[in-house]
Model the fold of this input.
Amino acid sequence: MTRVLVVDDEPQIRRALRTSLEAHGYEVATVGTGEEGVVGAAEQAPDLVLLDLGLPDIDGTEVIRRVRAFSEVPVIVLSVREAQSDKVAALDAGADDYVTKPFGMEELLARARAAMRRKQPDASTEPLLRFDGLEVDLPKRLVTLDGDQVKLTPTEYGLLEALVTNPGKLLTHQWLLRKVWGQGYGTETTYLRTYVRTLRKKLGDDAQAPALIVTEPGVGYRWVAETTA
Amino acid sequence: MDRGVSEVEPRRFRGLSARGAFIAVVAPAAAGVASIPLARNGPAAAIALFLLAIVIAAVAGGLWAGLLAAVLSSIALPFLYGAPRFRLRFDGTEEILTGLVFLTVALVVGILVGGAAEERARAGRREREARLLGHLSSRFVSGDVPDRVLDDFVRVLLEPFGLVSAEVLVEVDGTQMNARAEQPGLTPGGPDTVVPLVVGPVSFGTLRVERPAGRRPLGPHEQLLLEAASKQAAAALDRARLDARARLAQLDAETNQLRAAMFSSVTHDFRTPLASIKAGVTSLLDRSVEHEPDQERELLTTILEETDRLNRLVGNILDLARIRAGALIPTRHEAGLDEIAEVVVARLAPRLDDVAVVLDIDEIVPSVAVDEMQLDQVMTNLLENAARHSPVGGEVHLSIAAAKDRVEVRVCDSGPGVPDEERERIFEAFYRGESIPDSPGTGLGLAIANAIVTAHGGRIWVEETPGGGATFAFEIPVHVLQPPEREASA
Done:
């Protein structure tokens, strides 16, 4: 059974999350402070941590740093709209994703599933990734859409590879630029946006109803498509 | 150098200066020399030349130089042309008469010239005074803050009065202010003068001016002028003080009005969704009725929509509170307005069932340093506003275009448009178009959009959509963050 640790100081949120998650078949433990959160992550070895950033004792970003010292457990940050910089700091500290309060359960569960998928063994080392009509052959660096080869430039392919090998994780602009363009790039977000636009067009994805790449403006991108057999 | 008002107060006749004495000697000498070639025709030419010399000396050197030249000429003429020549003698009536004529000419010319010089000096002084007071009064009506008024005041005084320093110390409505100006290159330590800054019965403080070391104190006329200038400064301070009070009173009135409007708007806008939610939930919890699955879904959808509405309202109220508190400070990151627009449209489109949103984005949109949450709010507010005022089945166009140094976003609807007279006021908080009395908006969206765009150094405006409707447009300047904030925090 999948274990979820909820770290939030609001009892109402803890109750709502416990009820909804248990209804979906998860085993739920809840704590109200950052210290308890770190201890819980160590002792209970959960499969997922849902972490509120505004905790009474220690900063949520600090909790992530401490947890990351011993665990690669997926961490999804819960945060209010106003704390945009905190979200980015949390991602840089090692969080996988965030959802903005108030959130819908559907959205939270989708993110949770995506984050946990990333942790399944071999998910990212599978040589051939299939997303409905889209196939990415990692060893051959070959991309086909409905059987037709998609011609990508090396940079476009690099970008796609970075995305599909980190499914469900919110990849920050800085991380993507360094990964694809190399060290020394980290701020040229106009490039990145232009490449993402071209890539979307070539893969037939619509930014207004994305099935593959979701934009978090000012933060980064997330690969949302699930692999199909 | 010490010119200016203090130096244009001459005595009617200057004493004999070195320059005057020089001219008084040289001019007759030159006349004598010039007359030598004409000597054989008698003394007439020489007399004319000496008269000319006396006039020149009186004009250039003043009365005393003229008189000296007349005396010298009276001696020189018989010396040169009398018989025997080159011998001094004063026995003939002819010589005495010539001497008297010379002296009279010198006297008349000298007096005329002296009077003209005095008149000229007086006119110059009046002009300078007028210019000084005129400058002060033009500076002081421009609605400047008191600090600037005072700085300017002391600086302007330095040169006309030949001062080393000028300093004011005043108290306006309990606030102490002072200003000081100095003229470099002059030695301080000379006589000083203190003048009060008064207007009517009110005294604001004092002006203290200092002359350079070794110079005479200011004369009575200069003191009067200084007092006139100080009165103007005091009057300006008085105006600034009254302006500030009036502004404060107006702000107070506006705040009260805004608070009242906000209170009624917030009460209404919060209660409406809360009422729907409570009705929906109690209905679902009521075990005495069996809901059809369709009805249940309908109720739940309503609850969801109303919570979203409440959430947006809270966001708007928070933003407005931040604007009011002066705390709407964007946390800027490099971001693309194109992506923000896409996300906003993706989020809003399902909710706006009655209108179609059409996106039109340039191929390359340069990054801008913005608070992406705030810009999301701006586009959301503009789109919601456009959708609210669109006819059912209408289209709302959102276009993003890159210009050289800015990115422009336009939201065009085909609704009734905004009348000319409302185009300014429409960005005020709680303003609802008078032409559309039952507008369902909160009256906050455009005010918040305006505040956010302004906080980003941009501009927002409304114009007519070609073919009818309103176009709300804003632009954000493009400039790269150096160094990027995200790098710094990593």
Notes: Residues 201 and 449 of chain B are 49 Å apart (CA to CA). Chain B touches chain A at residues 304, 307, 311, 315, 318, 331, 333-336, 338-340, 342-343, 345-346, 349, 359, 364-367, 370-373, 375-376, 480-481, 484-487, 489-490 (CB under 8 Å). Chain B has three domains: 5-125, 144-245, 333-489. Residues 5-125 of chain B form one domain.
